[in-house]
Amino acid sequence: MTLEPLQRRIGRRKLIAGAAGGAMAVGAAAIVGCGDDDNGPAPDWAGRVVSKFIRDDVPIENPRASLWGSAPKVEVPMQPQASALPVRMQPSVPSIRVCSLNDGKRIGFMLEWADPQRDEKVVKTPEFKDGCGVLLGPPEVPATYFMMGVADIAASIMHWRADWQKDVDDGFQDLETGFPNVAFDFYPPLVDAPRPLVVSEDYPEAGRPWLPGMNAGNPLSQPNKTSAVEKLLANGPGTITHMAVQDAIGRGTWKDGAWRVVIARDFAASNEGEIELKGGQEYALAFTVWAGSEGDRGSRKSPSNLGKLFIENA
Amino acid sequence: MAKVFNWQLNREMTYRFEEARPQRQAGAVFDTNKCIACQTCTMACKTTWTSGKGQEFMFWNNVETKPWGSYPMAWDVKILNTLGAQSWDGNTYTGKTIFESAEQGEYHVGYLPDDMDYAGPNRGEDELSSVMSEEKFYLKMPHDAWFFYLPRICNHCTYPACLQSCPRTSIYKRPEDGIVLLDQSRCRGYRECVRACPYKKVMYNHVTRVSEKCVLCYPAVEKGVQTRCMRTCIGKIRTFGFVSPPDKVREDNPVDFLVHVRKVALPLLPQLGLEPNIYYIPPIHVGSQAFLRMMFGPGAEQAVATYKNAMEGNDPELLGVLMLNVSTDRIIHKFNVSNGQVAGFGENGQELVRVPLKEPTIVRPAFDPTLAVYRYNTA
Ligand code: SF4
Ligand code: SF4
Predict the structure, then answer these.
(1) Closest ligand to residue B162's CA
(2) Dihedral over alpha carbons B118, B124, B125, B131 (to 10 degrees)
(3) Is there a contact between B106 and A189 if contact means CB atoms under 8 Å apart?
């Protein structure tokens, strides 16, 4: 798909935004594909995503695989984030297109949205990354649940990060990616360290205390990324916690002014408090998008309303 | 939003959290009249805390030359401009703080510095703002010749904007000593704090992708030892200790004495509303009282007069407290001036140091017979 049709479609969605009744009627009638198959505009999600069952494995590594075209796609309008400070009063992305596949053991989501600027570097102070999130929870939750769960019902979140994707694809984006001409005499604890000095797993032990975030075990500071998706548990704004077992996978590609991201996990929960999924069941569902060059990060983001996920059975 | 009392503004103001003063508040007084911009403090901090990869641009302690220098570039001009006109009625601030000027949906006004803003930490040091012009018989400066050095660290504010701004409350103020710390394992690199701190004392690590800030050498402070930047100060401009709110002042506490009793030490940009806990004795030779009032609040003129009076020999107590500066590595909790000497005491009352108010002049004979050498007296 090219930039043109996607943006045109988003423009069209904006035009009909607000016509909820009409959108719902379309949603019930049209089952159309998500990926490269350009078979018409996606219907408004009407608050529901159906995860299509397939006998093959979910094509996680390939966001452009034709199987994705068989999944029913929906257009999810994004909202202002006005419930936690600091806010974002205008969504940076008006809507995203979503579809989902499952193979009875694993579920994958594909998220697509137009973003003319690709932000995958967070080395410099004013640089923020693009990203998206899928939030899952039990079916009966209060309306505020879309903002990272509520105090007594945790939300299971998968967060795909463009900076991690770049790290996974091309290696850790070290200082030199932001400052190619950087020159330094020496780092005192690393006088004899081999040059060029690359922050990696074999970064000299003596220097680790001088990378405080990494030394403190902060997952954001770890240079060796194996997945671009982070699994998080949250009980409301400000509480997101990196899960102990990180086994969500995914892949995002940017082409012609649009991101296409696949995020996937097993039905089985691998962490305490994480929601377990089953075919034939319904779950709470919400999405979030961040546009880095718009200054999005943390609560400066564009969330969707709370919706439902139905997982088709074999 | 809660209503809290900010004694530096002599009024209540709004803040995200309820007033919760620590059991005691670590703080300091910097005498700007004595700073020589040697940057020893800067390097003491740099070599201790920020010599790692990703921290190249970081100076948790920096010394800038006012009015022309700033690090990051124009931090003070930018935040004061954003705040708009500020006004005082006597000792009461009648303008708006950075919290009260916030747009709806924000905690405060602020801005995120650009990378280039950190690129000239020494910009403006001993420099003119533009080139000199040639008059017939002399060179003319583009502006008044006065300037002064302003050493800056995190103010470990009573109402920290950094702490308030963090959606995850990764920043906390320790109840035992008021030191403001940023949890390195909890931060998610949103840089809300970098944007929020008007003094720009939270910085983003380029490699670990999370933010960092001055820790006020808390491992030392916990052991009763002064911070690196204080202990190494060549100009002996720094009084380190604990500062009390006005209703709990202890007159024999050096910091309280300077801040509350003599009122010779003033907060930096108190109008921002953070109740910063690093205080400054304003420079006595600055050509613009308005500039000093802007930087240090309405007490600036009186502070200059009080300081001059002490330097003329009329206030041995004030002189005494200042003589204790950087005379010991230990934190001084109490002082006493008597018999031409000042003594500093530790937390348990033990005497840490004793200094004469006036250093004796000793002239040695030119020839030392024990070593059979001639010596020069350089004093
Ligand atoms: S000076 Fe800045 S970093 Fe330090 S406590 Fe105050 S607001 Fe926070
Ligand atoms: S060490 Fe003392 S005199 Fe030297 S620059 Fe720092 S504050 Fe000023």
Answers:
(1) 1
(2) 150
(3) no
